[in-house]
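Limitations

Structures in this collection are predictions, not experimental determinations, and the ligand pose is part of the prediction. Treat each record accordingly. The example that follows, with 4'-deoxy-4'-aminopyridoxal-5'-phosphate as the small molecule, is included so readers can see exactly what is and is not provided: the inputs are given verbatim, and the output is the predicted complex.
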Amino acid sequence: MSLAAHDAGAPAFDVARVREDFPILHREVHGKPLVYFDTAASAQRPLAVIEAVSDFYRHHNANIHRGVHTLSQEATDAYEGARDRIAAFINAPSRDELVFTRGTTESINLVAQAYLRPRVGPGDQVLVSQMEHHSNIVPWQMLCRQTGAELKVIPFDDDGVLDMAAFRALLSERVKLVGIVMVSNALGTVNPVAEICREAAALDIPVLVDGAQAMPHQAVDVQALGCSFFCFSGHKMYGPTGIGGLWAPLSLLEAMEPYQGGGEMIRRVSFETTEFNDPPGKFEAGTPNIAGAVGLGAAVDYLQGLGMDAIGAYEAGLLAAGTERLLQVEGLRIVGTAPHKAGVISFTLEGIHPHDIGTIIDHHGVAIRTGHHCAMPAIARFGLPATARASLGLYNTVEEFGVLADALEQTRAMFA
Ligand code: PMP
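Predicted complex:
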């Protein structure tokens, strides 16, 4: 298979060239070239992101908003400029609809507490799928305990495909929110999110989309999706940790109570009363991760420079070739075989515990993740406590899947 793949009109994707942008890919692990297949846990960062963060601290660092001195104004411009570019990246109608958070987890907790908590009570339901990350399960369970609402679950089939008939059967006026992952971090399944949003909208039910694993692999257009809330994390999309976002229409953000109280989320404070700021500031209490936002802005610039369509096309070819190569390993079973997948190959190797696999192949320089991938119900659905997971990014190659497969074959030989 060719390493170059591109859409008509999109820039050509040259993976060898792309790899040069990631300094960490040049290091060795246990004397072997690093083969990094753990991007779903956290992506590596390109030099453009590392340098943007470094440049911010070297030349512009100060606290933002309300500062009259030059550095504060430069820092504010950098932070708010990043908001402009990230909002445009997801095609948000307005920059004011993008709230900076620590990441997907905080975004979902924000929606659970600031949006849904005052709007549900006993008898109401929250609907999530069986393949959600714990971040899109536990905040709703906490909310249910607080309010008496009930958590309902949309099942998926043996391939990891969401049961849309079950989803439709579960939809009713009792459902006050649907939470759905766009791309499963445990199985790689790409869910029909636009369809889910359309069907929920017919009953006026808001849909929260967990976009953590979608953002690095495909172009996201929140308007085309038709969702009410879209959540993502910077570190999954080649940006820094500790920064991410929540997108929601201004009308929803305006109708919501603040999530946390403190600085920046206020307009005026007295001991008698406090007047809140407008969104997005209303949800950004305290000094935010300014350098993180700047780094995420740089990550978005980097991804746009490569072209999301070119990245998606390259990765689709890589996923297919990687799947084919791994299936040649005797005793290897892929967990999650949906026809529409992105970025993730979860697997088991007959007779060998996933943790042993991960530890042994680390000595070949290969980094994969093993365990339940913070999606215990999804893995339990297959009667398993754990899987091994190879997750790919825009810098991986078909040759690296060869290194992984060879390492797995040698692991098998050790247990024979
Ligand atoms: N949802 C999905 C699908 C994820 O993969 C992750 C991270 N593994 C999260 C949510 C949580 O993201 P974060 O830890 O960045 O908040």
